[in-house]
Amino acid sequence: MMESVYQRVRRLAAGKAVVVFTVSGCCMCHVVKQLLFGLGVGPSIVELDHDKAGADIHALLCQLAGGKSQQPLPAVFVGGKFLGGIEAVMACHINGTLVPLLKDAGALWL
Questions:
Q1: In a domain, 110, yes or no
Q2: Is the pTM of this model over 0.90?
Q3: Is the distance from CB of 84 to CB of 72 less than 8 angstroms?
Q4: Could you list the residue range(s) of the whole structural domain that residue 45 is in?
Q5: What is the chain's pLDDT, residue by residue, as a tens digit (110 residues)?
Q6: 3-state DSSP call for residue 82?
Q7: Can you tell me the distance from the alpha carbon of 102 to that of 105, in angstroms, rounded to the nearest whole number?
Q8: Domains in the chain, number
Q9: What CATH number has the domain bearing residue 38?
């Protein structure tokens, strides 16, 4: 049986402490990746423009984002749960909840 797009995203998101769905050349995706790298996190990166199911995954991520923004990428999962896009990641970073969230997920050992 073929794996559904939803099942694939769940499997990928649960596979590592932090998973970032991106497209190459996206400046917001770059910002989130650099923030995570700068904090000492080694996220799993899924580049949708290099994935044959990229368009289907992108459509699912748009639904997860609730249609609030036109650009659901980057889509960040922490501990298998959907955190959100750049706005959610930056808000957590600014209010001080990002590092504890990353620690709880096992992405940081500080």
A1: no
A2: yes
A3: no
A4: 5-104
A5: 567 999 999 999 998 999 999 999 999 999 999 999 999 999 999 999 998 999 999 999 988 887 655 567 999 999 999 999 999 999 999 999 999 999 999 999 76
A6: strand
A7: 5
A8: 1
A9: 3.40.30.10
